[in-house]
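Design request, tokens follow.
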């Protein structure tokens, strides 16, 4: 990962209060099926790209440069007629004020992603109807991304979007596909959404705002003070870890942020990170290799 502080002094751009539309790259990889050259996989890739990028997910209009950058990488493991067994890696990032750098906000490996799809079938989203698990899963991730992005620009700014994602969870739970129910394991869409709307995890949303709006967006003006804000935001997550050790929400946060945190605190003006280092090791022990590479 290139040094973040180099990027943060590059070309400035106009920052809107909330960027609420998606600019997504969709990739469908079907090599594991042994029939990856079938046209249906290319059609699925094209249809999903159009669905994500051309659907009006909010009631606001934004220019192309204001859209949230995202990627949806689908690995199809089995294919039989219109039945697909797959996983999907969803990532998203938001721009940092005063730079061309994009800060990651979401990195989710969704392994509970089986669906039915017929070539050229219309993909239509209705939060009150779950006719297609493919559409429900994609829409869930879109609204989760919108919620996380909004939370980085205003305190609790993502509540509305996480509420829509909850509606998708409730509607899809009536079907037979996994990922939507409390019984579907600790790493499901249900569990992630429950954490995002639970008062127990409310410090997470405050930390997202402090980390990005008060930290990253201020890096071009005062990098040392910005780094202190970012450290404070991360340290504040310890109260969540104390209540819910190894919570799935924090795991998804550090999956997105580990490399960025490593880069931030390995370059630029030095700040005291003794407490930060201890908390990072406690909250995200699986990222110990990243933490060990922090130079200061």
């Amino acid at each position: 990962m290139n040094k973040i502080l180099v990027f943060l002094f590059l070309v400035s751009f106009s920052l809107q209060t909330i960027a609420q539309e998606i600019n997504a790259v969709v990739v469908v990889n079907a090599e594991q099926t042994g029939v990856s050259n079938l046209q249906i996989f290319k059609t699925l890739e094209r249809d999903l790209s159009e669905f994500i990028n051309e659907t009006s997910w909010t009631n606001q209009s934004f220019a192309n440069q204001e859209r949230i950058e995202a990627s949806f990488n689908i690995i199809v493991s089995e294919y039989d007629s219109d039945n697909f067994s797959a996983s999907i890696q969803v990532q998203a990032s938001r721009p940092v004020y005063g730079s061309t750098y994009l800060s990651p906000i979401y990195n989710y490996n969704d392994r509970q992603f089986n669906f039915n799809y017929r070539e050229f079938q219309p993909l239509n989203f209705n939060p009150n109807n779950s006719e297609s698990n493919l559409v429900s899963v994609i829409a869930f991730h879109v609204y989760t991304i919108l919620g996380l992005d909004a939370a980085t620009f205003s305190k609790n700014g993502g509540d509305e979007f996480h509420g829509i994602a909850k509606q998708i969870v409730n509607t899809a739970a009536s079907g037979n596909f996994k990922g939507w129910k409390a019984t579907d394991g600790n790493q499901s869409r249900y569990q992630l959404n429950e954490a995002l709307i639970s008062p127990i995890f409310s410090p997470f949303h405050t930390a997202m705002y402090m980390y990005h709006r008060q930290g990253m967006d201020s890096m071009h003006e005062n990098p040392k003070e910005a780094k202190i804000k970012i450290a404070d935001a991360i340290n504040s997550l310890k109260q969540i870890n104390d209540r819910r050790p190894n919570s799935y929400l924090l795991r998804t946060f550090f999956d997105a942020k580990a490399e960025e945190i490593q880069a931030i605190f390995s370059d630029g003006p030095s700040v005291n990170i003794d407490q930060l280092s201890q908390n990072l090791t406690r909250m995200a022990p699986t990222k110990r290799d990243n933490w060990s590479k922090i130079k200061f």
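Comment from the thread starter after seeing the answer: thanks! Confidence is low (pLDDT under 50) at residues 5-20.
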